[in-house]
Amino acid sequence: MEVKKALFISQEIAPYLDETPMSLWGHDLPQGIKERGAEVRAFMPKYGCINERRNQLHEVYRLSGMNIIIDDTDHPLIMKTAPLPPSRISVFFIFNDDYFISVGRDQKVKELPKEPETLMTPEVNHERSIFYVRSVIEALRKQRWSPDVIQCSGWITALAPLYMRELFPDDPSFREAKIVYSLWDDDFGAPLNERLGELLVQDGINEATVHDIMGQPVDHTALTRLALKHCDAVMQCSPNIKPEILQMVQESGLPFMPYPGEENNVEAVAQFYESL
């Protein structure tokens, strides 16, 4: 497959967050794919610890203002963007006061929270993930942009393949795209709230599709299983992945890229995309 347009739905991107294997991958991979001639866009949550002034974030008014309804409550979406250095790829930040801490431009750096909200308030991570994924989908549909490949990186993106394939199978933004899910050693510890399955059904997801998680806490393995059932390919991005998850990948029969190592990983990913 020739990749002319690539979308990266990420949990972490450097330099907006501290350098970790995931945030560095979130920075280097989009840039590497762009250097190979593709048009690239990226999304990530606008965590409160991201300094808007230092990172030159500004609001995208044509994409802001939508309401994402979760559990019969409206949650307004605010979309911000910044150019990713040095390539100036457009990174779109998903923000909402209910799930991410509001930090004004006049607040000092010392007043910023030190951790992403996923660690600070894990009890609402199930709703936070739904809000993030649905916001990305609605923004992409509004942009009328159709990527050839959609890379989902981090557990907070795990619901994206489910929503795209279950609720929008014929939408031109996703219909022809290959959805690739990244495997990371990013277990979130405390399971997601047992109402996750119920909220997905409220959104229109078939109850049979999420039968395995209905009415019970959802751990990292169960969330990964849900992603694997709806993606088109899998990529291992951490050297150490739970054996049961790798077993699920093997049983799925999905195209799989093993861990490529720390060097030349962009080239390995580009070749993997071409093979899909």
Structural notes for this entry:
It is a single chain. The chain is an alpha/beta fold. The chain has a domain of 193 residues: Glycogen Phosphorylase B (Rossmann fold). Helices cover 30% and strands 20% of the residues. It is built from 8 helices and 11 strands. The chain has a 9-stranded mixed β-sheet, with helices on both faces. It has a two-stranded antiparallel sheet with strand order 4-5. Helix 6 packs parallel to helix 7. The N and C termini lie close together (6 Å).
Topology:
Blueprint: E1 5-10, H1 21-35, E2 39-45, E3 58-59, E4 67-70, E5 73-76, E6 78-84, E7 89-95, H2 117-120, H3 125-143, E8 149-153, H4 160-167, E9 178-183, H5 196-202, H6 220-228, E10 233-236, H7 243-252, E11 256-257, H8 265-275
Parallel strand pairs: 1-2, 1-8, 2-7, 8-9, 9-10, 10-11
Antiparallel strand pairs: 3-6, 4-5, 6-7
Reading the helices and strands in chain order gives: EHEEEEEEHHEHEHHEHEH
Which overall shape is indicated by the principal axes computed on the Cα atoms? Answer: globular
The chain-level mean pLDDT equals 93
Write the CATH fold name of the domain at 5-45 and 124-275.
Answer: Rossmann fold
Looking across the biggest beta sheet, what order are the strands in?
A: 3-6-7-2-1-8-9-10-11
Can you say what the CATH homologous superfamily of the domain at 5-45 and 124-275 is? Glycogen Phosphorylase B
Structural class: alpha/beta
Q: Please count the helical segments.
A: 8
What is the CATH C-level name of the domain at 5-45 and 124-275? Alpha Beta
How much strand content do the residues show? 15-25%
